[in-house]
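Hi there,

I know you've been waiting on this one. I reran it after we fixed the sequence typo, so this is the corrected version. Both the input and the resulting structure follow.
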Amino acid sequence: IIQEMENGQSIGLTIVQHLVPTMALIKMIAKIFHAFGWGKRKKKESVKTLAALAASLKSCMSTMLQQVESSLVMNVAAVNPMPSIIILDSSVWDEVQSYVHASKVGMQGRLSRILHEFMAELDTFKQTE
């Protein structure tokens, strides 16, 4: 997942293609374990392995969250100059930039909420020694 993000794949796409199915799979496995009486806090090897997977995935999500939270600052810091060919009034151009900024802020908020929710769910898979 991290390699795909480094290759320029967007975090939003990574969440949809990889994290959502992986989280669904982890939840499904946890339900199966619970049906067998192997709760998240048991000391069985399979439960420990699932907890290790959850911890590893949470670490990956933490990296993604840091990228999401810093990306907007970096993208918004550079104000887009007016195109050299003036086809829009400057007030229209300013309004377009305002909408783009609002869209980036909204996307950052949505991605952050998703990652925080997933990380909170993964926190329930604590490893016991």
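Quick highlight: Residues 12 and 107 are 9 Å apart (CA to CA).

Best,
R. S.
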